[in-house]
Amino acid sequence: MHGPASPGWLLVALCAATGAYCLLRMRSSVEEQRSAAGGDALMGFGMAAMAVPAAAFTPPSWAWPAYAAVFGAAALRALWAVRGSRHHLHHLIGTAAMVYMAVVMAASPGSGHQGHGGAGVPSVTGALLLYFTGYVLLTGVRLVPGSVAVAASGGQPGWRDRPELARACRLSMGIGMVAMLLGL
């Protein structure tokens, strides 16, 4: 799934740091932050694990079906939660993308890090790339006014309750997803 080792390790670091911050967000006093933070943390750590360069570690054959099962369960949870929050729709698409990548990696010949093998961009990969590219652009645009609005509000919320930090986490995971899909 990955190219050179240096960008792969940078992606691992980005996703792991994002997952760690999302775990901290789970301690927020704001219910909405807590409810979304768990899914964000799972995505961050799952993406970090999937992004480890093949030169450093080749996962065993059972790893890809295990990823698919974990993210399939997360997708079912997100599907159930979609009725309550639009953000959960993004979680549903993200977990479905992780299931898709795990299935592709499990089906690929060799080490499991070969991806599609140069057969072109399949329509599912293309659709996911379009979605996550649009998500990154939209979230990036929303991030700038979010930081200005918090500063102008006068009161400084706790560091775990800052919506612009949550958006920044989702932006970094969206960028990571685009990178992973491009490498697939």
Task: Based on the model shown, name its key terms.
single chain, globular, mainly alpha, 6 helices, 0% strand, 184 residues
Summary?
It is built from six helices and no strands.
Count all strands and give the number. 0
Report the total helices: 6
> Level of helix content?
over 70%
- What do the pLDDT scores average to? 82
Order of helices and strands: HHHHHH
Unreliable residue stretches: 111-118
Question: How is the main sheet built?
Answer: none
Structural class: mainly alpha
Share of residues in strands:
under 5%
The best one-word shape is: globular
Radius of gyration: 17 Å
Q: How many domains, as an integer?
A: 1
> What is the CA-CA span between the terminal residues?
5 Å
Structure characterization notes:
α3 packs antiparallel against α4. The chain is built from six helices and no strands. The longest helix is centred in the last third of the chain and has 30 residues, at 123-152. It has 184 residues and is mainly α. The protein is globular, with a radius of gyration of 17 Å. The chain has helices at residues 5-25, 31-50, 63-81, 87-107, 123-152, 163-183. The chain has one domain (5-183). It starts with a helix and ends with a helix.
Q: Mind sketching the topology for me?
A:
Elements (H helix, E strand, L loop, with lengths): L4 H21 L5 H20 L12 H19 L5 H21 L15 H30 L10 H21 L1
Helix pairs in contact: 1-2, 1-6, 2-4, 2-6, 3-4, 5-6
